[in-house]
Design brief:
This protein is an alpha/beta fold and about 350 residues long. The chain has 13 helices and ten strands. The strands form two sheets. A five-stranded mixed sheet has the order 2-1-3-10-4, sandwiched between helices. Helix 8 runs antiparallel to helix 12. The longest helix has 27 residues.
């Protein structure tokens, strides 16, 4: 309390203003604290490549920030690994194979797709052209490279069966993701090719000095699958629906802007990742990869071209395949593996 003197009235008036100012500042500080950005970690399926440019664009251009999200994007080591990191609480969201997520969820992992980026699968068998292999049937007795946690492994048994082969007819050789392309080019362990995405691996192979690989898309062998999902836990959906909604909507806005201006998205990714990703050759490779992702942003069943939509028919087809060929519980219902409630 200030002293009362000859200027008491003035002093008291000033003191009152100071008290009022402090109260206002405290209110603002409390409000700011109450609406502090949520820290969110997104786990990618692999190290950054072109398909991830939409996430980078959203972070770089403040789309996630405007949604009250402080986004931390981390690289991964395969879709299965990325999804598991969401289950154990390391990350709140993952981007990876929907088939891989479904397999884990069917085994008890509390995972769910809250949006789709690659609406159709780009998975394929890629072989070196000099091997003379033209079809999956030609793989009998051969060795193929892959990575242990890769989502591309999920439907490969279906491809083999639809080509008239068994699992025993082809030997899968696991290597680390970082060694996959170099091992492919060297034919390590007498391998003739690899399992990989048509979105990223052909561009990576060519950038490393290899020839355009012979690609055998899974879709040519009866595999109609949902491609890559935004995945979280059912607990997140139940307990933090507002955060899930903000993240999903910011992500779809970011990919919508990426669709309009892919060069800007590639530049954003280059700025974030740096190194070769920020050089002309790295950007050209990333743009080639991103184009494939943007080409499969909508499936034929997505009549309104709504970004992120889990199309029920697409999921029904994939679940039916997994029941027939991947020992999925016959009672499993497609609707239990996804939700569209957080889309605009």
């Amino acid at each position: 309390m200030p002293p009362i003197n000859g200027e008491g009235r003035v002093t008291m008036k000033i003191w009152g203003k100071l008290i009022g100012s402090v109260a206002i500042m405290a209110t603002v500080a409390t409000a700011t604290s109450a609406f502090a950005d949520d820290d969110v970690r997104l786990r990618l399926n692999w190290m950054y490549y072109g398909s991830h440019a939409g996430f980078a664009y959203g972070k770089d251009k403040g789309i996630y920030k405007a949604a009250g999200i402080n986004l931390d994007i981390r690289s991964g080591n395969g879709s299965g690994s990325a999804h598991r990191l969401v289950v154990n609480g390391d990350s709140q969201f993952s981007y990876g194979s929907c088939g891989s997520m479904t397999k884990l969820a069917s085994q008890g992992a509390p995972l769910i797709s809250v949006g789709v980026i690659d609406a159709m699968g780009t998975e394929a068998v890629l072989v070196r052209p000099e091997t003379g292999i033209k079809s999956v049937k030609d793989l009998k007795g051969k060795k193929i490279l892959t990575t242990a946690n890769a989502g591309v492994n999920t439907f490969f048994p279906i491809v083999l069966k639809n080509a008239g082969l068994t699992d025993a007819d082809v030997t899968l050789v696991n290597v680390a993701d970082g060694a996959l392309v170099s091992s492919y080019l060297q034919g390590a362990g007498d391998t003739v090719g690899m399992l990989g995405g048509l979105d990223d691996k052909p561009a990576e192979i060519k950038a490393a000095g290899g020839k355009e690989p012979v690609g055998m898309p899974y879709s040519d062998y009866g595999v109609n699958q949902v491609g890559y999902c935004i995945v979280t836990t059912k607990d997140m959906v139940k307990n933090k629906p507002d955060l899930v909604k903000r993240f999903v909507q910011a992500t779809m806005k970011a990919y919508g802007e990426t669709l309009k201006n892919p060069d800007a998205a590639i530049n954003s990714m280059g700025d974030i990742v740096g190194g070769t990703m920020n050089e002309d050759q790295g950007k050209a490779q990333a743009k080639e990869v991103l184009k494939v992702t943007l080409d499969v942003l909508f499936s034929a069943g997505n009549k309104d071209k709504k970004i992120g939509l889990n199309v029920p028919g697409d999921w029904d087809d994939m679940i039916a395949l997994m029941k027939k060929y991947n020992d999925l519980d016959p009672k499993a219902e497609a609707k239990n593996f996804y939700t569209n409630e957080f889309l605009n």
